[in-house]
């Protein structure tokens, strides 16, 4: 269930970003936060289900999202 919730949040984030891009062609902080939370849930789900490789790869994605968020906030 955690994995499904994470994927739903990622979908919602992408749809929000897509709708916003009709006005401006830039990443929204809100999109990155929702996307990051969704990926964090996938990381947790991966570790809970014993899929360490998948969880670690999702963790790399999460770190990337946080790096982008850090750049946007500056």
Task: State the gist of this model.
By secondary structure, the protein is mainly alpha-helical. It has one domain. The chain is built from three helices and no strands.
Can you offer a commentary on this structure?
By secondary structure, the protein is mainly alpha-helical. The protein has one domain (2-73). It has 3 helices and no strands. It has helices at residues 2-20, 29-48, 52-73.
Radius of gyration: 13 Å
Strand content: under 5%
If helices are DSSP runs of H or I spanning 4 or more residues, what is the number of helices?
3
Q: Which oligomeric form is depicted? A: single chain
Sheet having the most strands: none
Q: Quick one: how many beta strands?
A: 0
Give average pLDDT, whole number. 92
Number of domains: 1
Helix % is: over 70%
Secondary-structure element sequence?
Answer: HHH
Q: Ranges with pLDDT <50 over ≥5 residues?
A: none
Which secondary-structure class do the elements indicate? mainly alpha
Euclidean distance between termini CA atoms:
35 Å
How would you sum up the global shape?
flat
Quickly list its features:
74 residues, 0% strand, mainly alpha
């Amino acid at each position: 269930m955690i994995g499904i919730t994470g994927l739903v949040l990622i979908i919602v984030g992408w749809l929000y970003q897509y709708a916003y891009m009709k006005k401006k062609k830039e990443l929204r902080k809100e999109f990155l936060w929702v996307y990051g939370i969704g990926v964090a849930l996938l990381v947790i789900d991966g570790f809970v289900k014993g899929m360490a490789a998948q969880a670690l790869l999702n963790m790399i994605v999460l770190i990337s999202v946080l790096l982008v968020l850090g750049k946007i906030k500056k």
